[in-house]
Amino acid sequence: MKILVINCGSSSLKYQLFDMKDESVMAKGIVERIKLDGSFLKHEPAGGDKVEIKAEITDHQIALKMVLEALTHPEYGVIKDLSEISAVGHRVVHAGEKFSGSVKITEEVMDALKECIDLAPLHNPPNIMGIEATKELMPDVPMVGVFDTAFHQTMPEYAFLYGLPYELYKKYGIRRYGFHGTSHKYVSLRAAAILNRPIQELKIVTCHLGNGSSIAAVKGGKSIDTSMGFTPLEGLVMGTRCGDIDPAIVFFIMEKEKMTAAEINNFLNKKCGVLGISNVSSDFRDIEEAAARGNYRAQLALDIFAYNVKKYIGAYAAAMGGIDAVVFTAGIGENSSSMRKKICDGLEFLGIKIDPEKNNTRGREIDVSSETAKVRVLVIPTNEELMIARETMALVK
């Protein structure tokens, strides 16, 4: 079975084609700058040369048409005909409380996704456009929606509600939803496999640390809490997002800086985080380099981030009544040995201790715990696309 995985952004379309016989990637690529000048497709067939095709790409349907043509191209394609694609899996950011798992896409599902646009105005519209473009070009191929929020739908009410009047939750759906669910699910399942223990008996803290970062408490294979909330702005200090702050600060800044609601929203999402603290970059690699040169604010940004993560690990160990493993994933989690060390230092009282030699690694699956540690510390590269492909195959079968 061959499954095409699609992830649509407002001006981009990422894709991977999987052969589920061995879960190998047959081809992958991205269409960038959709509806903008200088649009192009980058296509990477497995074992072949990368191909870049420049074209005027005015909508997602044209972008998808180019992807399908690249996949079947006589020179750099990987399949002879589109009939070889058994199903399409779509990444969808927000499903509200409507779905607690992946679903086959029907008209009812499409209506539900449109109802969730208010909850994810930047993400759901392009996700929906990608689905509609696929339906137009591949009308007979079954499609599945895999939701970023679905994995966190197992959170208990006391974990996802805010200290607001209950009527606002019932009226507007204001609650913690959580994001990066596909990644948290994938790495928690991999952790159980690496530890050779049933996931039902494990208490795992999964740390998805990148430009956007979130942490989840996964108990018995289910998310019981997560750091991102009603939006991805809550939780950790991130690349450009402020994370947890006193809500009164918002009104204070608006008044002092004479900002509108739209301006403060943009400010908190795009001008804060480690970028705002360091005044160097939102890229942790740049910040680490600046800190190594003695830049005080760059070092401060790293210290604040590590302290944030450390607090959440401790909180989630308490929430689960113990901890068996900590998993680091995504760009920072997979590649920054210094950040992993900074986070884990001081958590020895929980049984967390890493081996400096094992920890000196990047981008590969490894247990970096010391031999005497009671809690395992694992580095697991995330693979959200493969998780989407697996969920799609399970449903269409």
Automatic annotation (TrEMBL):
Its EC number is 2.7.2.1. Transmembrane segments: none annotated. It is an enzyme of class 2 (transferase). It catalyses: acetate + ATP = acetyl phosphate + ADP. SUPFAM superfamilies: Actin-like ATPase domain (SSF53067). Mg(2+). Can also accept Mn(2+). Its cofactor is Mg(2+); Mn(2+). Keywords: ATP-binding, Cytoplasm, Kinase, Magnesium, Metal-binding, Nucleotide-binding, Transferase. Substrate binds at R91. One of its GO terms (biological process) is acetyl-CoA biosynthetic process. Pathway: Metabolic intermediate biosynthesis; acetyl-CoA biosynthesis; acetyl-CoA from acetate: step 1/2. It is found in: Cytoplasm. The record marks H180, R241 as: Transition state stabilizer. Pfam families: Acetate_kinase. GO terms for cellular component: cytoplasm. One of its GO terms (molecular function) is magnesium ion binding. Mg(2+) binds at N7, E384. ATP binds at K14, H208, L209, G210, N211, G212, D283, F284, R285, G331, I332, G333, E334, N335. The active site is at D148. InterPro entries: Ac/propionate_kinase, Aliphatic_acid_kin_short-chain, Aliphatic_acid_kinase_CS, ATPase_NBD. Catalyzes the formation of acetyl phosphate from acetate and ATP. Can also catalyze the reverse reaction. Homodimer. HAMAP family: Acetate_kinase. Belongs to the acetokinase family. This is Acetate kinase. It comes from Koleobacter methoxysyntrophicus.
